[in-house]
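User: Need the bound-state model for zinc ion:
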Amino acid sequence: MPYTVHKLNDYSEETMLKAVVQFRLALKIEWFEIEQKIINPDLTSAARQDELKKFRDRWLSRKSGQFSQINELWLKNAPADRKKSVGHLINQLKQNDLPQIEQLIEKRGFFVRQSSDAIRSINRIFDDEKGRKLQQETLATQSRMNSLLQTLESLGSEELQKIAIEEFYVDLSEALEAAAKSKDLAVERLDITLPGIRRPIGAEHPVIKTMNEIVGVFRNLGYSVEEGPEIETDYYNFEALNFPPNHPARDTQDTLFIAGQESKALRDRLLLRTHTSPVQIRTMQKMKPPVRVVCPGKVHRNDALDATHSPIFHQVEGLAVDTNITFCDLKGTLDHAMKALFGSSVKTRFYPSFFPFTEPSADVQISCIFCDGKGARDGSPCRNCKASGWIELLGCGMVDPNVYGFVDYDPARVSGFAFGMGVERIAILKYGVDDIQLFFQGDVRFLGQFG
Ligand SMILES: [Zn+2]
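Assistant: Bound-state model below.
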């Protein structure tokens, strides 16, 4: 029958001592047995780990481990006048033996994970004369403890005292460590010819890196950052941005709709946002002018995958609304931002475009950063700008006065501009990536280059 902590019949000094000695002897003997089991190379590594785990559970488990049982069965039932001295004895036991046995288990953890071959070669080193002597000593100690345990009941108070003192102050690990020492040395021996363990260094994803860079440029201009939901209602994504139902501009932003919402009014139906512009509406609803915000985030469109299109991409949009904001402010702001992102020699040009929520609207081109705007490189036409010297990069415009109607701003008093840029598009230019899909495939060979 394996040892278990049992209730004490009485709380006399003698009974207590006997119980403590019995506990410590049982713990040591069982540990000796485990030691012998796990050095057996015929066991699989899993079986060795299992043995160690069983031992740990049996003695150290928080709920039913033998160490926890001491509190349950000894301390809780102790009469009031003995509680203090019982508590003292238990504390001594726990402070002394518990950390030692935990440490031993920890140390053996490495050993038990070795393959049978490794254990065999470790044992071979251990199997010299010194090793055998240690093993004999260990076995002798073990059998001495076993016989002590058997005669414990018949021992008188005085002998018990002697053993208790001896047992109590002899370091638990001392007896056990000796047997294991040469094995430890063998296990811990370093083979410096083994390849090292490489810890890959993480890197910021190029899209996030670029997005943070763009946001940083506008932060420096005093813009704050606003974010909003990726699943939007039709109202915020289209209607409040001056895309009335059935407006043809909606076709250019076909997206993924959440299914099963036919019973809802059109404006409440949910969809994956096609741009970060809804965040501008949400911002204006909760903030009075002056407003200066950038809204970075993920957006979706029903685009087929190819080298320049993806159904998922990222945008940074910006919005500035105040009194007396003019198109000049817009041009100055974006010209500065492009220079900050691509270098001070970059030029910008604006030409008319259309967006439902801005009037007038413009597309912005920057001078080609690959051919310095010349349209040709090394005597042949520049592929990046299709020999035009310009690259189209973002859309912008003055906020359409209709939009202010949706957010309770007075179009007669305030004016403002908005702009939006695709983060992947800018990352492609900055890092010379030739396929937008690379950003979403999660290939570490690609992503690792941005570390
Ligand atoms: Zn070019």
